[in-house]
Amino acid sequence: xxxxxxxxxxxxxxxxxxxxxxxxxxxxxxxxxxxxxxxxxxxxxxxxxxxxxxxxxxxxxxxxxxxxxxxxxxxxxxxxxxxxxxxxxxxxxxxxxxxxxxxxxxxxxxxxxxxxxxxxxxxxxxxxxxxxxxxxxxxxxxxxxxxxxxxxxxxxxxxxxxxxxxxxxxxxxxxxxxxxxxxxxxxxxxxxxxxxxxxxxxxxxxxxxxxxxxxxxxxxxxxxxxxxxxxxxxxxxxxxxxxxxxxxxxxxxxxxxxxxxxxxxxxxxxxxxxxxxxxxxxxxxxxxxxxxxxxxxxxxxxxxxxxxxxxxxxxxxxxxxxxxxxxxxxxxxxxxxxxxxxxxxxxxxxxxxxxxxx
Length: 358
Fold this sequence. Notes:
alpha/beta
């Protein structure tokens, strides 16, 4: 099916000759449309009348079985019958829809991604341009506010995290079928730091994927190279008095986050780590060509501190360009639970955002 094409005959032929079955997802929008009642449902009725082996079913959302049956008959003059419908709980429905969406996505990737890296455009703060030609459009609609105090922080773990995991699984499955497709995600756009960290973690090093992020005429790449914090100010871990507390990690790349971190205290720390790039915090302090080694160095230091102090989890406070957050996420495998904190718009406090758990 193509936008603007003449799809009625195409759909009728698919249902009458090729489809193994038909499931109606019944909502008020489906009932009020023209195409579904007049084209799809009538073709389904013709097919099931001619072939008793043809599977047909329905999922009612917002309707009981009786009301849904009557609504369909009123719009399509087709009796879908009580055997076609049953009421489904929201949790079961969303799980089934997720699986169906993933199946559609895999078919799309297999058809449209012929060779080379998988290109993606990510936007969590702003609308994504309709004309963008990337294979993948990672977007939120409506976009999240710049200030995390203005939206439900559950969006990270309930929606964005699972969606990225599904994306990685689908691309991985498709890539294995064709050697010309590179296991590289080439990314453009802009994202909240939490979304960037979650993206890097979904495609982290153990998955054997790499990231190539284009940002302000520079390229930030993940590579399996020796960790290096040459020139960085990294004081020895400072032990805290919280025997069962967390490892606090502060990365002061574009700004010093100490005061903002104190304003969002999460209890006594087991230990504290600080990372400041050469020259001190500044918007241009990070060199994209050395950022991967620095990200690896930060994660290596976190692992060593965890081995020494055995904290409950790691709390990450980060001020950096968003590609650096993606690089950190890529290296963060096997570091235990990590809780990322997102800064508010005023940059004077942080709040819990995404949780990464091995």
